[in-house]
Amino acid sequence: MKEDHQPILEIRNLSKSFTASGTLEKLSGKTKYVRAVNNVSFQLNKGEVYGLVGESGSGKSTLARTILQLTKPSSGEVLYKNQDLTALKINEMRKLRKDLQLIFQDPFSSLNPRKTVGQILEEPLRIHGVKKAAIRQEKALALLEQVGLQTEHYFRYPHEFSGGQRQRIGIARALIVDPEIAILDEPVSALDVSIQSQILNILKALQKNLNLTMLFIAHDISVVRYISDRIGVLYLGEMMEEADTDSLFAEPLHPYTQALFSSVLDGSKKERIPLKGEIPSPLAPPSGCVFHTRCPFATELCKEQKPKLREVRAGQRVACHFVK
């Protein structure tokens, strides 16, 4: 749900490369770099859900971790309420952790098996200075109810729950400190389809009731469509297209976005756009447009010159030479 158009988080020209450390790289004696995220810019407005979609290997999770400063960027800025997070020291960033929370993909490995649900939920409150046990317990029980669990679950251990229930616990743990922004990294991809819809409905209700700003990351375009106000399409670490959800689904402009959409079985008779081959290695990204090796419309210009991400319609940005 959109509240206004005031950006609470701005990502400016963010890039992240890693040093390759494989056997071949060591034998060659040359330092090679894996370019995971390259010059990505977008913003989150207060109270909206921004969906980030792309194939596996497109850099979505690295981008999330870099925004949260769990991984330091190679270059660029992350502005939270006009404060550049990349310039903060560790202790300064620690104070902002409660405002920027991450909900993990795997509900099985993200919970401490040695602690009860109550202890798991109360730990963030304890870390952030809530000393009274009664207050911590009251808040934990209230959030359990909000995510569809019961009071008795407070005393149980993670192994006693299903995957969907564990993800509800993970959501409650992230939201118990009243964050401004929640970053959700593939939060339903490890769950059965029937459970996915339940979790998505819970997230929509929480987002509305708590006025949360969300960055929702997924590879499933239909999931992103259901929950997002705006969508960014990422490919090999670069932003290909961005628009509000209705506009993007009404008329996707970039060939990669069109190919993603055509792969969804939505009952329409639209012709499927095939993608050739696999996503290239970030060790050796293609020259020019990074998508040209798989694009059915690529020309010599695409191989030689990188297209700029530009606004072609109100609120819709596309990185393609031939979109007018």
UniProtKB/TrEMBL annotation:
Domain ABC transporter, residue spans: 9-261
Domain of life assignment: Bacteria
Family listed: Belongs to the ABC transporter superfamily.
One biological process term in Gene Ontology: peptide transport
Any GO molecular function: ATP hydrolysis activity
Native organism: Amphibacillus marinus
This protein's record includes keyword Plastid: no
Keywords in alphabetical order: ATP-binding, Nucleotide-binding, Transport
Protein name, entry field: Oligopeptide transport system ATP-binding protein
Gene3D superfamilies: P-loop containing nucleotide triphosphate hydrolases
